[in-house]
Amino acid sequence: MTKQELFNEICAKKSFLCTGIDPEINKLPMHLPKTIDALLEFNKQIIRHTRKYSVAYKFNTAFFEQYGSKGWEVLEESAKFVPDNVFTIADAKRGDIGNTSSMYAKAFFETMNFDAITVSPYMGEDSLRPFLEFKDKWVIVLALTSNPGAKDFQYFEHNGVRLFEKVLDSVSKWGNENNLMFVTGATKTEEFEQIRKIVPDNFLLVPGVGAQGGSLNQVAQKGINSQLGLLVNSSRGIIYAGNGEDYTEKAEKAAQFLQNQMEPWVDAVCSY
Amino acid sequence: MTKQELFNEICAKKSFLCTGIDPEINKLPMHLPKTIDALLEFNKQIIRHTRKYSVAYKFNTAFFEQYGSKGWEVLEESAKFVPDNVFTIADAKRGDIGNTSSMYAKAFFETMNFDAITVSPYMGEDSLRPFLEFKDKWVIVLALTSNPGAKDFQYFEHNGVRLFEKVLDSVSKWGNENNLMFVTGATKTEEFEQIRKIVPDNFLLVPGVGAQGGSLNQVAQKGINSQLGLLVNSSRGIIYAGNGEDYTEKAEKAAQFLQNQMEPWVDAVCSY
CA B131 → CA A1, B59, B101, distances in Å? Predict the structure, then answer.
């Protein structure tokens, strides 16, 4: 998917919501059997009932890998169920030496046809390069993450430049705004102004709204750029909004609630 | 597997060789069909013919994921084929926020019963913690990698401390020598003395001998500690040693060649 196509979808849906599909068998709604087949059906129902409000779906590979090859099948089937005009992200946090990263790129961009994959920057340029060679595919690089451990290494500083700033600065030169996004946590909005100075034009994938405590309005106020430039993710807040037979309605309402909050921000950008 | 059990295996085999299983269908020996089933059989044959000389097997998940859920099945089956007394490593380079890392730990330690998983340190303590809670399981954290991109961020320096040193220092305090190893590339032996000052007792997983250009003797000379403390990996040099019907013999000889070079180093440690 191109940046323009993503922007068009944002304006059409008046939303920059990314719904995170992080399912667990033992958290399925009470009335559903606790099986891997029920998990796939759950994912499809969640997608069916939230796609009106979601411009992207993020699949966290860990949640599928815990169920082995059967889980990997469910990942493939669930991702296929997302409509073509909606952006799909494999939240895989991969990254390895060049020839290995080529395999990951093949796995997620060709075998599974995701639009994007999240990647850790630790191993440097040759670990990201193979992902950037795919046309109309995206690499989403971890910069400043939403979790407590972000402080351990991401703020490590050299001459006033912190590691996450160095990552933003270096990585943004290896690609461009049409194939690179960055992960910047919603719990770190105090840094968004500085982040936007380094990467004014790239999309930011922002997790951490909801369960992790980030504020949507703070994120929007500080992160939006001329082509919106944000995908804000909510996982648990949507997929586990309900636990009964009405779980699809509850998920739909949770997605709609976030879309409603996003609408004025989108209007301000798309009406130009 | 415990550290003592690993050390016993090293002394018994007079080897600290880790054979890397990174197979590709289009690189299978000429006479084999280019199918996913042949790939599994290839892996089993390689393991059967190298296990006499290998104390560990490292499975690079990328090579399996490129084939989707079928590839993931082959990963599961191949790993099961390794004898119980041999150390198994999922070279997965995972790492995510705490609740997600728990899923990865479950995937690799429970569902697939690997002894160890490689993890990227970028997201900090809570991204590693869930892996460290498993008894007799190991986390192998990227410190100084063997690839060219290692220079991009791993040498980023604060007050004379480089990022990979900071990673070694911080991470080694989150676990101990019985559940933590570090990845240090064979192409970076000029740093091994410094690395051993920070983590004298931890095992090091050392890729980069062979195809990437690292020297086994340099690695041994600078990296060995009182319980040997090294797993040196070779992947392509072993599994692709031959391309004909004698590929199993060629792989066996390649593994034996490395074991022979390792033997005097092991003798010097195990005879104490």
Answer: 35, 18, 7
Residue with the two structure tokens 């390895």: A96
The alpha-carbon gap from A76 to the nearest alpha carbon of chain B, in Å, equals: 8
Amino acid at B167: V
CB A74, CB A67: distance < 8 Å: yes
pTM for this entry: 0.97
Distance (Å, rounded) from C-alpha B119 to C-alpha B91? 8
Tell how strand B161-162 and strand B157-158 pair up: antiparallel
Catalytic residue among A93, A166, A222, A253: A93
B13 is annotated as an active-site residue: no
Token pair of B222 as six digits: 């600078």
Provide mean pLDDT across the span B49-62. Answer: 98
Q: Are strands B203-206 and A230-234 parallel, antiparallel or unpaired?
A: unpaired
Residue B48's pLDDT band (boundaries 50, 70, 90)? very high
Q: Which domains does chain B have, with CATH numbers?
A: 3-270 (3.20.20.70)
> Residue A184: what are its φ and ψ, rounded to 5°?
-135, 120
Q: How far is CA A201 from the centre of its chain?
A: 17
User: What digits encode the pLDDT tens for the residues A160-187?
Assistant: 999 999 999 999 999 999 999 999 999 9
- Separation of alpha carbons B222 and B217, rounded Å: 8
- The one catalytic residue in B27, B93, B166, B253 is B93
Neighbouring-strand partners of residue A88: A57
Sequence-ordered list of residues with C-beta below 8 angstroms from that of A95, at least 6 positions apart, any chain: A101, A104, A119, A120, A121, A122, A123, A127, A128, B93, B120
Tokens 């050299």 correspond to A158
Residues making up chain A, counted from first to last: 272
Strands A87-94 and A203-206: unpaired
Sequence-distant (6+) residues with CB within 8 A of A220 are A230, A232, A262, A265
CB spacing of B124 vs A152 below 8 angstroms:
yes
Given the cut 0.90, state whether the ipTM is greater than it: yes
